[in-house]
Design brief:
alpha+beta, 6-stranded mixed sheet
Length: 237
């Protein structure tokens, strides 16, 4: 099946959201760069995030890039998207071997280490907008949420995941971003918090063949929203 990205708005303008199923493009990135599982996970999360951020862009001349640079063994992860969510990426060190975390998950934060997240929004003008924040966890989703909160004053929910199979191929990949608008009601915030508290990991849902509509229906249960459009994100060298 093709990768998909959907864009959602709340009918009263309280929030907007994006969701992506990116298994194919993350698998293509894995093959091109020859990444080990923990690097596949980190690169895949970043690619999924930048594809959704690309869907926010207003014109064909715009692009957005994310750089995660830390003192961990991977060195850096750089990804970029255009307004069609056509993405590409680069990793400093594609082969990193780290023990699993105590919960059995790949140690993405350990591979990146401590450092900075930089977001560059090129609007086709003389000078791009550059935002930079310290990495909060190195797990990428939390770091991007922190960037939105501090650099754009936009409280956001960000979930990203990559499930690597036993043969090192990508079994599932994707995520979602929910951005609260300035006049978002307390009722919406409260309902969203309740829903987040019981949400399973996004890769678990994708591996169980949940559609993006079903995932977001679960996340946004009790809230009024509609899907504005959808696109096919691609890895484009």
């Amino acid at each position: 099946m093709k990768d998909r990205l959907i864009r959602i708005v709340e009918k009263e303008g309280d929030f907007r959201a994006f969701a992506i199923d990116s298994r194919n493009l993350v698998e293509e990135a894995r093959i091109i760069h020859g990444t080990s599982p923990v690097v596949t996970a980190g690169l895949g999360r970043a690619l999924s995030a930048v594809a959704m951020m690309g869907a926010e862009l207003k014109s064909q001349q715009e692009s957005i890039s994310i750089q995660l640079k830390g003192d961990g063994p991977v060195g850096c992860i750089v990804v970029v998207s255009d307004s069609n969510s056509h993405v590409r990426g680069y990793v400093g060190e594609p082969i990193v071997d780290l023990p699993l975390k105590p919960n059995g998950k790949l140690d993405v934060s350990g591979s990146i280490g401590t450092g900075y997240l930089t977001v560059v929004h090129d609007m086709g003008l003389k000078e791009p907008y550059i935002g930079r924040v310290e990495l909060q966890s190195g797990e990428i989703a939390q770091d991007i949420a922190y960037y939105y909160a501090t650099s754009q004053q936009t409280p956001s929910v960000v979930a990203l995941g990559v499930l690597v199979d036993r043969d090192y191929t990508v079994k599932a990949a994707g995520g979602y971003i929910v951005q609260l608008m300035p006049d978002c009601s307390e009722q919406v915030v409260s309902q969203l918090e309740k829903n987040i508290a019981v949400m399973p990991p996004v890769t678990q849902l994708l591996a169980e063949e949940y559609t993006l509509e079903k995932i977001m229906g679960k996340l946004l249960q009790g809230l009024s929203f509609e899907i504005m459009d959808e696109s096919e994100p691609l890895y484009a060298c």
